[in-house]
Amino acid sequence: MVNRKSKKNRNKQQRQKKNENPQRRGNSEYLFNNTILPTNIPLIDFCSLVIDQVKLNPALENSPDYHFSNMIVHWENKDYESHRISAFLLLMTIYDEVPSYITRLMTEENEFILSERLSFIHLDNISEGLKLAHVYYKLIDCFIRTGAKGRNSSYFKTFMKVIANKKENSNYPLHHYDDILLRFYEYYHRVLIKNDNELNNLTLFIYQHLEGEGSQSLYFFLSYFCLNKNDQQAIDYALTCLNSRNYADGTSYNFSLCKNTIRATIRCNLWHEYDKWMDILESAVGGDNPELLQLREQGECAINKALARHEHPINPTNVTPITLDSVKTEELLILLSIIDGCGGDWGIVAKRRTFTLYISIQRKLQTSN
């Protein structure tokens, strides 16, 4: 069996050796603004050359080259907020042609010399679920997961700010951003999995800015954050989740979704929904699954309690209504006496007007006798 960690270290050593020997690089070049730029030089130097060219031609300020270069330069200069803004402005150009050197940067064909602060930019350092993702997501992933603990959450705040500003001031159709929103959420939401508040904020932001339908992961967390607060809404989101597109690569939240939703149907006494979700879970895990059996036991216990309440003799739904005219005056007086004597203990308090009427009736009865 190959030791994955040692293989990763070996690849890192090979890249460092390659960076230390720039003469081994090819003479690759890149044409930008009618100027030939070398790509076998330090990446920071290349990015500085690109920025200089944009100063000569401001029309290129929205090019992927410019945003990428700013992203790198700001990182090297430790201007992290500007770095994050540039990273997401680069992502907004995802439908434009990708510069060839950015594609090569994330492969073994990279010819740039990377500084120590940029040495983590490599395919080995991206998350497993992004192997088939667009190169911009892979690049951003390297930075998000390399940041110091607590700093990576800042990427999500910046992303929301950039998206909101772009949608308001861009000429692109609004649905242009849906795929970016959903893929960003799919690829990175697990970074916030231990921070409920920030994950909830990101989830609501993505949902509110979509023009079309959401994804399975998005609806799963919309449902999750409604549990116990609004179980009916959680159940509705869960049903939508099952019928939504799954952007994940071979994974889903369906098992957790079923368990959460079954518990919500029990709390809401929605037994038709309970049966439906139990069937969905059973078809996925089999009838002898321990968690399925536990949920079935919880459901049967709750159903028995609900039936007992429904069939109880003092349940108002089981008592035939009568009119006051059919009740004898003496019986009403007895009831009022009981309420007067015990009503406080039962949480029932008759109004003064009631007892004024009671005394009046009692006097009339005494007179008639």
TrEMBL record:
Biased composition (Basic and acidic residues): 17-27
UniProt biased composition (Basic residues): 1-16
Disordered: region residues: 1-27
Domain of life: Bacteria
Listed name of the protein: Uncharacterized protein
Species assigned in the record: Klebsiella pneumoniae
